[in-house]
Specification:
CATH superfamily of the largest domain: Malonyl-Coenzyme A Acyl Carrier Protein, domain 2
GO molecular function: [acyl-carrier-protein] S-malonyltransferase activity
Oligomer: single chain
Catalytic activity: holo-[ACP] + malonyl-CoA = malonyl-[ACP] + CoA
Distance between the termini: 11 Å
InterPro entries: Ac_transferase_dom_sf, Acyl_transferase_dom, Acyl_Trfase/lysoPLipase, Mal-CoA-ACP_Trans/PKS_FabD, Malonyl_CoA-ACP_transAc, Malonyl_transacylase_ACP-bd
Helix content: 40-55%
EC number: 2.3.1.39
Structural class: alpha/beta
CATH topology of the largest domain: Malonyl-Coenzyme A Acyl Carrier Protein, domain 2
CATH class of the largest domain: Alpha Beta
Number of helices: 13
Strand content: 15-25%
Keywords: Acyltransferase, Transferase
Number of strands: 10
Strand order of the largest sheet: 8-7-2-1-9-10
Radius of gyration: 18 Å
Length: 306
């Protein structure tokens, strides 16, 4: 069994197109479709955008998705295809494509619309990763914070003792101080422009839903794990609903990964830039190898059929 895991925002880096190496020309059609679907030069974003430019949601989401699909394309050209797919946050949209749910053209239209709506929100929020506290402690601190502020909630459940909280910036700062008092080992502010997967995204839900309903969602051709459900999707309609709900609902990544890790003879590939997914897997099962497609040696091992 081969699993493709797709990273989301935070995996981007300036000049990441170079990681495709001498195989980059195999992705020309992909970048052409991205430009046709969005009217934007996605190739230039992946080649030339600075780290500061890539932090902007409107740029991040398209560039990350393009790189995810670029590495997936290279693997497919070498006969490596997934039996199960999952994507973390934004990465879930890449997983939809690899499961055959959305065409390449519609995928880029969807990502572009999602980024546009998120970038257009009037209020901005904040996300922070809390390391070293159990879920019930993080939830209790959030509840305590909410007694004197607006909502602060868990936005992403990444792995055991790694949770991301989100809300308005000042409220998250209050919660972060309380998390430190509660014994958090480390707290990391995430390089994103808003509090994704929280109530801060509610204004975008209706226009996003309207847009999604214009797209042709097909039945999945491979097993796909869904963020909001925390388990396998069974139909195109369920997948569509999860994509909408994911905007404001917690990402149950740990639940998804624990289900995936029960599969026998499992080979896991992180399909995209970096090792974000690998790091999260290590927080669940340190013995599990994850092959990094942006690492030349790992890519070659996958291509050889490890």
């Amino acid at each position: 069994m081969i699993a493709f895991l797709f990273p989301g925002q935070g995996s981007q880096r300036a000049g990441m197109y170079e990681l495709l190496g001498d195989k980059a020309n195999e992705t020309d059609e992909l970048f052409d479709i991205a430009k046709e679907a969005t009217g934007r030069d996605v190739l230039s974003l992946c080649k030339d955008a600075t780290d500061e430019e890539l932090k902007q949601t409107y740029n991040t989401q398209l560039s990350v998705t393009a790189m995810n699909l670029a590495f997936a394309t290279l693997l497919k050209h070498r006969g490596v295809t997934p039996d199960v797919v999952a994507g973390h946050s934004l990465g879930q949209l890449s997983a939809l494509h690899e499961a055959g749910v959305l065409s390449t053209y519609d995928l880029f239209r969807l990502v572009n619309k999602r980024a546009e709506l998120m970038s257009g929100l009037k209020e901005s929020g904040k996300l922070a990763t809390i390391l070293g506290l159990e879920k019930n402690v993080v939830e209790a601190v959030c509840e305590e914070t909410c007694q004197t502020t607006d909502q602060v909630r868990i936005a992403l459940e990444n792995s055991y003792k790694q949770y991301v909280i989100g809300g308005r910036e000042a409220d998250v700062d209050v919660a972060v101080a309380k998390m430190k008092e509660a014994g958090a080992l480390k707290i990391v502010e995430i390089r994103v422009s808003n509090a994704f997967h929280t109530y801060m995204m509610e204004p975008m839900v209706e226009p996003f839903k309207e847009f999604i309903n214009t797209l042709d969602f097909q039945e999945p051709k491979t097993k796909i794990l869904l963020n909001s459900k925390g388990g396998y999707g069974t139909s195109a309609s369920e997948i569509k609903e999860d994509v909408i709900r994911q905007c404001v609902n917690v990402v149950k990544w740990e639940d998804c990964m624990r289900q995936m890790l029960t599969l026998e003879n499992l080979t896991i590939a992180e399909v995209g830039v970096g090792k974000m997914m690998s790091s999260m897997i290590r927080g669940i099962d340190r013995s599990q190898k994850v092959y990094l497609t942006s690492n030349t040696n790992d890519f070659n091992d996958l291509a050889k059929g490890v």
